[in-house]
Amino acid sequence: MTDQTDNDGKKPLFYDPTEHRIRSFVTRAGRVSNAQARAFDEFGPRFTLPYQKAVLNVEETFGRKAPVIFEIGFGMGETTATIATGMPDKDFIGVEVHTPGVGSLLKLAGEGNLANVRIIQHDAYEVLTHMIAPESLDGVHVFFPDPWHKARHNKRRLIQPPMVALLSSRLKSGGYLHCATDWQEYAEQMLEVLGAEPTLQNTADGYAPRPDYRPVTKFENRGLKLGHGVWDLVFRKK
User: Fold this and answer.
1) So what does this one do (predicted)?
2) Is 219 assigned to a binding site?
């Protein structure tokens, strides 16, 4: 997920007990390039799925039966496209609300002919709640979600108990939840929240080594060269 601000007055992500739901994004403006706009026109019909309050028939969508990986907040889509290219035997559903990112991944998917990628431009919480059947996912990726680093904004973070419980409910037994962050304090919170979910089990003694399938992005590589840390967490559904 890309960095987000609340300057536009939209409600940010947090679990609101008065509304009994989790907001998984902040609406913000973003410039769509000409190439991204063309990708919507050329590749949108093939790779995008409309949001609906009905369970998605995944096998019908992809035309086959294969393991399904769900990604929340794919940013500009480079990592998603790289992973999908390297795992043609798996199908990937990416959810992102920001139009430039959707256009970018559409361009990558179309030019790479990634038949195993589908995109939903909508709130991930609602997609999970209404479109994804319980115990149907083989994996979930949440890479570099907004850290909301100011203490008063911590409640807006994606990885909180209600969202983790929902994610786990959609995983098959043995399925995995892989989170990654470059913000240490958020990593510590993730470890605490994920470790407290009774249906999940840590695959490592604390943080996990970066799995080979997750590529190092240019931004991440630049940070590593500057001495910044990156923390991966991989939990499995019991």
Assistant:
1) Catalyzes the formation of N(7)-methylguanine at position 46 (m7G46) in tRNA.
2) yes
Check 3, 146, 205, 212 and give the catalytic one.
146
Is 61 assigned to a binding site?
A: no
Predicted TM-score of the model (pTM) = 0.87
The residue ranges of every structural domain in the chain are 49-237
146 tagged catalytic: yes
pLDDT digits (tens, 9 = 90+) for 95-109: 999 999 999 999 999
SS (H, E, C) the chain: CCCCCCCCCCCCCCEECCCCEECCCCCCCCCCCHHHHHHHHHHHHHHECCCCCCCCCHHHHHCCCCCEEEEECCCCCHHHHHHHHHCCCCEEEEECCCHHHHHHHHHHHHHHCCCCEEEECCCHHHHHHHHCCCCCEEEEEEECCCCCCCHHHHHHCCCCHHHHHHHHHHEEEEEEEEEEECCHHHHHHHHHHHHHCCCEEECCCCCECCCCCCCCCHHHHHHHHCCCCCEEEEEEEC
47 known member of a binding site: no
CATH of 49-237 given 3.30.930.10, 3.40.50.1860, 3.40.50.150, 3.40.50.300 = 3.40.50.150
